[in-house]
Protein 1
Amino acid sequence: MRAKSVTEQARRAQIVAAAIATIAELDYAETSFKAIAARAGLSSTGLISYHFKNKQELVDVVFADVLERFQDFVNARMGQAGAREELRAFLVANIAFLREHRADMVAFLRIRANAAVTDGGIAASDHTALATLLRQGQEAGEFRAFDPDVMAVFVLAMRNGVVLRSGSLDLDVCEQELVAAVDLATRS
Amino acid sequence: MRAKSVTEQARRAQIVAAAIATIAELDYAETSFKAIAARAGLSSTGLISYHFKNKQELVDVVFADVLERFQDFVNARMGQAGAREELRAFLVANIAFLREHRADMVAFLRIRANAAVTDGGIAASDHTALATLLRQGQEAGEFRAFDPDVMAVFVLAMRNGVVLRSGSLDLDVCEQELVAAVDLATRS
Amino acid sequence: MRAKSVTEQARRAQIVAAAIATIAELDYAETSFKAIAARAGLSSTGLISYHFKNKQELVDVVFADVLERFQDFVNARMGQAGAREELRAFLVANIAFLREHRADMVAFLRIRANAAVTDGGIAASDHTALATLLRQGQEAGEFRAFDPDVMAVFVLAMRNGVVLRSGSLDLDVCEQELVAAVDLATRS
Amino acid sequence: MRAKSVTEQARRAQIVAAAIATIAELDYAETSFKAIAARAGLSSTGLISYHFKNKQELVDVVFADVLERFQDFVNARMGQAGAREELRAFLVANIAFLREHRADMVAFLRIRANAAVTDGGIAASDHTALATLLRQGQEAGEFRAFDPDVMAVFVLAMRNGVVLRSGSLDLDVCEQELVAAVDLATRS
DNA sequence: TATGAATGAGCATTCATTCAT
DNA sequence: AATGAATGAATGCTCATTCAT
C-alpha cells in the first residue's frame, strides 16, 4: 500500500464527507455513487471508483473515519476519577459529539444497521469498552449488581435512540435526562 | 376502494409473511421482489406488483401488519392497576412478543430504520402511548419527574437494543435487567 | 432446474443465434450484450440477462450449441469401414459443415481461443476422438508410426486454418487438398 | 514524423515488451493499459497514451515488432540448397523461435486472431513467402502438384497449432513430427 | 387471478484517453 | 518526459414494474 498523495487524501476526504452527508440525508439503501458524486460536485461516479476500490471500501472508510473521530472526541472528555463520573462523562461526550456532528452519527448508525462492515471487530469496541467500565464500577462498589453486557446494550441503545430522534428532540433535555436515567439505573 | 376478496386477502397475507421473513433474513437493502417471491413460493414477481400498487405499499402494509399484531399482543397483557405495574407489563409483553416473533420485530425495526414509512403517524403511536402512560404515572405520583417523551424514547430504544442483539443475548436475563433498569430510572 | 417453456426456448435460441452472428462478425472482444441485442432485435440488453444468468453462461451455451450440432453433423457422415476412410470422411464432413455454417465455426473457434469455456472437458473431445481414431488406424496397420496426439493437433489445426481463411479460399480446393495432404502425411 | 529520441525508443520498447508479456499471460480481451503498465513498472497508464497514439497503434507496433524479429530469426536459418531443405529449415527455425520466444509467438497469434491489425498487408507476408517457396519447389520438381496457397495455409496452421498447445506438448517430438508430416504431404 | 416475458432505468465498475503540472 | 488525477462513455447486470395471455 503506497502512501497517498496530498491531492489523493483531499479527494478521498471530500468523497467521504459527501458519502456521510448522503447517507444521513437519504436512506442507506438510496445512497448511490451518483448521489454521492452529485453532493461532492464530482463530474463522474468513475472518480469515486478511481479513489476507492469499490463501494464496500468506501463504506468501510466512512465507518472507520467517523468511529475514529468519535472515539478521539469522547476519550478526550473522559478520564474522570470514579466509574460513576466516568459513565456520566461518557454520556455527556456522546451528546456533545452528536450536537456537533449529527450527520456523522446518523450515517454511522445507518451503516452499522445495514452493512456488514468489514472492520475486524472494531465496530464492537464501543460496547466492549462500556461493559468494562461498568464492570469496574461494580467491583469498586459504585454500581449495583447487573449484567454489564446487557446494561451496556441498554446504555448504547438509549444513546442511539437520541441520535435517531435528534431532529425533533431538545438535546439539552436529552442530555440531562439521559445522565439521570442511567445514573439511577446503575448506581448502587 | 373495493372490498378485497378472500383469495386476494390470503395472497396478500402470504406475500406479507414472505416479505417479513426476507427482511429479517437479509438486509433491508437486499430485499428484492425476487427474494420475496422465492420465499413465498411465487412463480413471478409480477404477482407482487399485481397485489400491491408498488414496493412502498408492500412495505407500508408489512409495517402496519406487524405493528397491529404487536399492539394486540401487548394490549392483551396490559391493563394492570398502577402505572409502575403497567410499565412492567409493557416490558414483559415486549420481550414475550420478541421471543415468539423475532423475525417480525427485526423486520419492523429495519423498515423503520430504513424506509420513510408513509403511515400518517401510525408508526409513532408506539411512542405516544408509552409517553401517555409515563405521564399518567407521574400524575399518580408513581414516577419521578422526568420528560415523558424523552423517557419514552429511552425505554423503546432499550427494547430495540435487545431486539437487535437478541441473537446473542439471553432473553431471560434481558427481561429481568430491563424491568429492573426501567423501574429504577422511573420510580419516584 | 425447471423445464424451459417453448417461448423461453425460442428466445434463448434467438439470442444464441444473434450471439453467434455477432462473434463471427465482430471480434470476440468487441462482442457486447448491446451488440447482440441489436442483432437480435431486442429492445434491451436486460432481456439477455433475463434469459441467461450471465455472459459466461451465454458463451457456454453458444459453445455447446455449436459443438453439439457440429458433432451430430460429423458423426452422421462417419462410420466408414477402415481408418483411412474414416479419417477422410471426418475431413469431408468438417468442410461440409463449414460450407453450411461458416459463422458457427468461426464463432466456435473464437470462443475457444479467447474464453475459458466452463464445459468440463467437452471442448477437448474433438481432439481426443481424433487421436483415438489415429491410434486405431496405426494398430490396424493403415497408418504409419507417428505420435497420434501430435498428429491430431496437426489435422485439427489445418482444419482451423481453413475455417479462419474460408472467406478468401475456394472450399472445393481446400477439401481436395486437405484430404490429400492428410492422407499422405498419415498412411503407412 | 519526427525522429524518435533514444529515450523515447527505449520507453516504447519497454512498453511493447510489457504488452507482449501481458497478452501472452492474460487473454487478449483481458489486456488493458492498466495490466500492461503494471507489468512494465509504469506509474501511470497515461504514459502509454503519451508514447502511443492509441491502443490500436500499440497493438500494431507489437505485432510488427514480433513479426520482424521472427522473420529475421527465420531468415538467418534459411538459404538452403533445395526447396525441400528450405522448407525443412523453415519449420525447424519456427520451432526454434517458439522454444526461445514462446510469449512472443503466443501474443502474435492472439493479436492476429482477435484484432484487425492495420498493417497494410505486412501480416500476410508470412503466408506469401511460404507460398512462393512452395511454388518454386514445384517448378523445380521437388514438390508434388498442389495448390501452393492452400498448402501454405496448412503448413502455417500446423505451426500455429503447435504454438497454441506448446504448453502441453514436447517440442522435440513436435518438430520431428512436423518435419515428417510436411515432407510427406509435399514431396513429389 | 396468475403467469412469465418484456421493459427501460438504474447500478457499480472498468476502460482508454486527456490534461495540468 | 513523466505523473497521476480526472473524464465520460461503455460494460454486464439487477431492479420494480407493465403487459399480453
Note: Residues 5, 7-8, 11, 42-47, 50-51 of chain D lie near DNA strand F (CB under 10 Å from a C1').
Protein 2
Amino acid sequence: MTEQDTFQQRIWQIVAAIPYGKVTTYGEIARLAGSPRAARQVGGVLKRLPRGSKLPWYRVINRMGEISLTGDNLDRQRQALLAEGVEVSAEGRVSLSRYRWEI
DNA sequence: AAACTGACTGTTA
DNA sequence: GTAACAGCCAGTT
C-alpha cells in the first residue's frame, strides 16, 4: 500500500459517507469511485477491511437488494442493519426503493 | 511477472 | 420469477 489515491482508499471514503439507516450497492460505489465496472473489487476491498474498522461495510448490498454474504456473515450484516432501523428479511432481502442512499 | 481469486453485474434465454 | 455466461479488474499468491 502506498500514499497515493488508491482504489481501496476511494472505496473506504465512499463507504464512510453512506448515511446511517441507508444502504447502497457494490456497483454504485464502483461508479462513484470512477471504475463503473469494478463492483466485484468493491467486495474485495470490504472483505479485506482491517479488523476493528469503523467503516459501515454492512450498508453495502448487491443490486438485487440482497446481502451477498452467506451463513453467519449474512446474519452479522443483517443484525447490524436491523440495529439502525433497516428492515431485512431472514433471507437478507432489503427494499432498495425504501433504503437506498440517493446522492 | 503470470496465474488465480471472487462481499459483482449486465445480458440472454 | 430462474439460471447460465461472459466480462470485469484490484488484490493476492
Note: Residues 71-83 of chain A form the longest helix (13 residues).
